[in-house]
From TrEMBL, chains A, B:
Cellular component per GO, a single term: cytoplasmic side of plasma membrane
Domain Aldehyde dehydrogenase, chain residue ranges per copy: 90-501
Top-rank lineage group of the source organism: Bacteria
GO biological process, one term: L-proline catabolic process to L-glutamate
Pfam families for the chain: Aldedh
InterPro entries in the record: Ald_DH/histidinol_DH (IPR016161), Ald_DH_C (IPR016163), Ald_DH_N (IPR016162), Aldehyde_DH_dom (IPR015590), PaaN_2 (IPR011975), Proline_metab_enzyme (IPR050485)
SUPFAM superfamilies registered for this protein in UniProt: ALDH-like
Protein name in the entry: Phenylacetic acid degradation protein paaN
Alphabetized UniProt keyword annotations: NAD, Oxidoreductase
Length: 554, 554
C-alpha cells in the first residue's frame, strides 16, 4: 500500500530531482492563495478548521499521553486556548523505538512515498496552515500562507528529492565477478540494505515553525528514521497539524502512527533536553538561538546535530544606479515580518564620504535619510503596512527594540506602533533604524527583530572587510551588496566566498535578500557560525542513513 | 595546465563513477605485480629506489624544515635509517593556509585532475611502494604490493569519483525565471561556487599507511582542501613517497607544492595534537586506536573528524557443507598479516553442542580442533607461511600475544615463531587460538594481532545475539557467518543490519572476510563504534566542501 504512494508521486519526485540539479525556478505547489489553485471553498474551509481548534483539545490521539499542555498566544491578540496531548519524553522515545522496528523494514520507496503523500496533504490544507502560522508567529496572512504553506512544503519535497537521489544510487543486489586469468572468475552476490540512523528529533522555532522544520523532518523520514517533532511552546499548532496529517498517512499505509509523534511541552520544562540527550536519538535538527544550538552541539554527542543559529546579516552599499529603488527594496527587507527572519538584513555599511549614483554623489547622511524615508513611506498607511510587518512574535523582541534605543545612538527612523485595522490586540511595530560607527561592538551581535544599524565606514574596502570578518566571527545567513563597479562586485564576491555566505547583488526590484527559493537557492551555507548545514544538499541527507551489505559466493 | 590532467583522466573518472554505482568488479589498476602490467624493469627499479632511500635523507624538500626525524624499524629486520625533514606544526599550518589561498580558486576540474594524476603516478611506482610498505608494516611482499599499491590507489580513485559526482551536480551558472502571470517573469542569474573547508589533516596508521590514508587524503584534495599528511612515526616512508609525488604533480600544474605537506614527527612529541587542535584544520581523517580516535572526536571540535577505530570482528558457525574448506578459509583469515588488519576475525562462536555438516554432526571440540589443524597446516612450511603472515609490526602486538596467553584459557593452537628464509631478523608468529566461554569479558575487547578466541555458546541464537550486542557496544568492521539454513542466514542478516555491520556469508573459497574491494564493498558502515564513516560513499565526501552562491537580476 505504501508503495502506491511512491507510484502516485514518482513523477513529481523525478521533477524535483531534476529541478534540484538544474536550480532554475520550479515548484510543485502554487504559492498563490487563489481559488483556482486551491478550490473555491479552500479559504473558508481553512478558516473554519482553524476556528474549530480554538478553545479546545487539539484532535491528535497520541499513545502515552499524560495530561495536556498549551498556552500559545496570538501576536494578533486572538484568544487561542488550544490544548495538546502531552507525552512524557521517555514514553515518546520508547514508542519511537518501537515504531522504528517496522518502519526501517519498509525501505526507501515506502519512506519516500509516505513523505510525499504527507506533503501533498499538507498542501491541500495550506489555508488552515496559514491561519495557524499567522496566529502563532505573527506573520501577515500572505507570508503565513506562502512561507508556512507551499514554500515550506517545497523545502520538504526538496529534502525528499535529495534523500531519494542519494539512496537510489545504492543498488539492492549486484553480481560481482572478478576475472582470474585462464581460471573461472570469482563470483559473489552482494545485497545492500539502507538502514536508518534511529530516532530523529526536530526542534521547531516560533517564527517559521513549518519552513524551518520541514527540511529536517522530511529528510529524516524519507531515510527511514522515526520522528519526534518538538514544537516551540509558542508555535505548536502548525506542527500539530503537520504531525496529525503524517500520522493519518502512516496509518493508512499500514504503518505504526508513532513513526511521527508530537512532543508538545511547556516552556518551563526540560522536555527538549531530555529528548536531545536520549541515547536513542541519533539525529537532531534545530532552529533557534546560538546558545541553545551550541548546547546541543556540545552535549548531544550521541547524535548528528544540524543547527541553524543566530547571525549578523549585512548590506554593503558602494554605488547604485537608482537609489530610490534600492531604498525601497531595502526598506521592504527591513520591515518584512518585522525583521523576525533569520535572513533579514541588520547592518548597512556606507562609506563615510558617501556613494556614487547615476545622478551624482550622495553623502552618507543623504543615503541614511533616504533609507529612513523609504521606511516611512512603506509604513505610512497602517492597513498596508501591517500586511508587510505582521506582528511582533514575543515580548523579548519588543524588549530588544527598547534595548537598542537605550544604546543612545542617533535615531534615523524610530520604531512606531501601528494600529491593526483587523486585530485590535495586535502588536505591530515599524523598524527602528540607528546610526552607528564601525567600531561599535553593538553591531557585532544579532538584534533579532525590526532593528537596523546604518554604519559609517572608511571606504567600501573597509565595508567589505568588516562584513567578511563579521561573517567569520559571528555568522550570517545573507549578505547583500550594491555596486555598479565590476571590480567591487568581484571583491565582495571573493569576500563572501572566503567567509562562506550567500551574496545577493544589486537587488532593487521584486526580489528581496530575505527570500530564498527552494530547488534553486541554498538556504545557509554550513560554512559560517550561523548554520552548520545547508537546506538542502547531499551533505544534509547522506548521513541520515547508512548502508549494510551482505555478500556470499554466487 | 591543470585542466589537462582532468582531460587526461576524464575517461577513467567516468568509469569510476559508473563502477561506484554498479558496484560490480572494477579497477583501473592491475593488482598483479607482473612485468606485463608494470614493465620488465619495474620490480628492479622499485627495489633500487627503495634501497636508495636507506641510510640517508629522504629527497623531499619542504619549506620551513627545522631539522630531521626518522627511526623507522623494518619488522623484517632490515636497517632503514631514513631521515625526513621535520617542519614545526605552526609552519605547516601557515604554509597550508597560504597554499589554500590559490588552490581554492582552481576549482573542481583542477582539483580532480591533479588528484587523479597523483594516483596514476603512484600506480607507476607500485613496486617502490611495495618495498616501502613491506619494510615499515611487516606485510608480506604480495600484500604490500596489492594493499599498499593498486588497492590503496583504487580507494583513492573511488573517493575522487564520489567527490566529483557530488560536485559535478552543482551548476556553475544558471538562469532563474519565475513566471508572474501576465506580467514579465522575474529573471535572476545565479552563480554557484564550490568552496573547500580549509586545511585537512590525515593521520596515518602503522599497518596500512596508504590504504587507510588515501580515501581521506584524496577526498579532501579533490574537494579543494589543502593537506597535511601526518604518518605514524613507524611508517613514514610510504606516505613520504606519496607526498613527494603529490608535490611534483602540483608544481608541474603550476600550484603551490605546499597544497600537500608531510608532517613527519617522532612518537614522543605532540605534533598530532598540535595539528589536530589548530583552528585552521577543518577536516581530520584518522585511523588508529579507539583512545586516540575518541580524543580527536572530543577535542578537535573545530573540525569534522572521520575516524576508523578498534572493533571486535566475529564469526558465527551454525552449519556447513564442507567443514574443511571452511576451516581453510578461516585459518587463512586468522593468519593473514598476523591478524593485524582492522577486518581480521577475532571471536568464533560455535554452539556448545556442535554444528551440522553435510557429513553429519561435528562436536564443539571437533570444530575447534579442525580450526586449529587448519592453522597448523597453513603454517607448516615456514617459507610459504611467512608470505601469508608477514611479520609483527610492533612490540605491543608481540606483548599482546603474551597477555592473551596469560589469560590462562585452554590453548587450541599456540603461537609459534617462524624463521623467515629471506630475512633473518624478521619477527614472524603463527596465530594463537584460545578457547573461551561466552561470558568471558576478555572477548569483548579488540586483541589486535594473531589472537583468536573460539567461544562456546548455548546455541546459534545465542551466537547471533552475542555478535549483535558486541557490535553495538564495541564496534566491528566485519561479521562472518556460516550456515546452510536460510532462516538462520536471515536472522544473522537482520542482526547485522540492526547492529550496522557488513556481513559475509559462507566464505569457503578464495574470498576472505578480511578483504573488501573498492567500488563494490563499503569498508566500514559508519553505523557502529568501530568507524564513524564508510569508505567511500556520498556522506564521506559531501561535507568536505560547501557551496556559496551569488545572485543578481538578469
Amino acid at each position: 500500500m505504501s508503495t502506491d504512494f511512491f507510484n502516485t508521486h514518482q513523477q513529481m519526485l523525478e521533477q524535483a530531482v531534476a529541478a534540484a540539479s538544474a536550480r532554475g525556478y520550479w515548484s510543485p505547489f502554487s504559492e498563490s492563495p487563489s481559488p483556482r489553485a486551491y478550490g473555491e471553498t479552500a479559504n473558508d474551509d481553512g478558516r473554519a478548521a482553524f476556528e474549530a481548534y480554538r478553545g479546545g483539545d487539539f484532535p491528535l490521539r497520541q499513545d502515552g499521553a499524560a495530561g495536556s499542555v498549551g498556552g500559545e498566544v496570538s501576536p494578533f491578540g486572538l484568544e487561542l486556548n488550544i490544548r495538546y496531548p502531552q507525552v512524557p519524553a521517555q514514553a515518546l522515545i520508547g514508542q519511537s523505538e518501537k515504531a522504528l522496528d517496522s518502519w526501517r523494514e519498509a525501505g526507501p520507496r515506502a519512506w519516500v512515498g509516505v513523505a510525499l503523500e504527507i506533503l501533498k496533504r499538507l498542501n491541500q490544507r495550506s489555508f488552515e496552515m496559514a491561519y495557524a502560522v499567522q496566529h502563532t508567529t505573527g506573520q501577515g496572512f500572505m507570508m503565513a500562507f506562502q512561507a508556512g504553506g507551499p514554500h515550506a512544503q517545497d523545502r520538504g519535497v526538496e529534502a525528499v528529492a535529495y534523500a531519494w537521489q542519494e539512496m537510489a544510487r545504492i543498488p539492492e543486489l549486484v553480481s560481482w565477478e572478478k576475472p582470474q586469468g585462464k581460471q573461472d572468475p570469482i563470483k559473489m552476490q552482494k545485497q545492500f540494505t539502507i538502514i536508518p540512523r534511529g530516532v530523529s528529533l526536530v526542534i521547531g522555532c516560533s517564527t517559521f515553525p513549518t519552513w524551518n522544520a520541514y527540511p529536517g523532518l522530511f529528510a529524516s523520514l524519507a531515510t527511514g528514521n522515526t520522528l519526534i517533532v518538538k514544537p516551540h511552546p509558542a508555535a505548536i499548532l502548525p506542527l500539530a497539524i503537520t504531525v496529525g496529517i503524517a500520522r493519518d498517512v502512516l496509518a493508512e499505509a499500514g504503518f505504526d502512527a508513532n513513526v511521527v509523534q508530537l512532543a508538545a511541552h511547556s516552556a518551563s520544562d526540560d522536555t527538549a533536553q531530555a529528548l536531545a540527550l536520549s541515547p536513542a536519538v541519533k539525529l537532531i535538527d534545530f532552529t533557534g538561538s546560538s546558545a541553545n544550538g551550541q548546547w546541543l552541539e556540545d552535549h548531544a554527542r550521541q547524535a548528528q546535530v544540524y543547527t541553524e543559529k543566530a547571525g549578523v546579516n549585512q548590506v554593503i552599499i558602494d554605488s547604485v544606479d537608482d537609489f530610490k529603488s534600492v531604498a525601497r527594496n531595502l526598506a521592504f527587507s527591513f520591515a518584512l515580518y518585522s525583521g523576525q527572519m533569520c535572513t533579514a538584513p541588520q547592518n548597512v555599511y556606507i562609506p563615510r564620504d558617501g556613494i556614487r549614483t547615476a545622478e551624482g554623489r550622495l553623502g552618507f547622511d543623504e543615503v541614511a535619510a533616504g533609507l529612513a524615508l523609504a521606511i516611512e513611506k512603506l509604513t505610512a498607511d497602517p492597513a498596508k503596512a501591517v500586511e508587510v510587518t505582521g506582528a511582533i512574535q514575543n515580548a523579548a523582541t519588543l524588549r530588544r527594540i527598547e534595548e537598542a534605543r537605550a544604546l543612545g545612538l542617533p535615531v534615523l527612523s524610530d520604531s512606531r506602533s501601528l494600529a491593526h485595522p483587523q486585530f485590535e490586540g495586535a502588536t505591530v511595530r515599524t523598524p527602528l533604524m540607528l546610526k552607528a560607527d564601525a567600531d561599535n561592538p553593538a553591531i557585532l551581535r544579532e538584534w533579532f527583530g525590526p532593528i537596523v544599524f546604518v554604519v559609517a565606514t572608511d571606504s567600501t574596502g573597509h565595508s567589505i572587510e568588516l562584513a567578511r570578518q563579521t561573517v567569520i566571527d559571528h555568522g550570517a545567513l545573507s549578505l547583500s551588496a550594491y555596486t555598479t563597479d565590476e571590480a567591487v562586485a568581484g571583491a565582495v564576491q571573493k569576500a563572501a566566498e572566503r567567509a562562506g555566505v550567500s551574496l545577493s547583488l544589486n537587488l532593487a526590484g521584486p526580489v528581496f535578500v530575505n527570500q530564498t527559493a527552494a530547488f534553486s537557492d541554498f538556504h545557509g551555507t554550513g560554512a559560517n557560525p550561523a548554520a552548520n548545514a545547508s537546506l538542502s544538499d547531499s551533505a544534509y541527507v547522506a548521513n541520515r542513513y547508512r548502508v549494510v551489505q551482505t555478500r556470499w559466493h554466487a
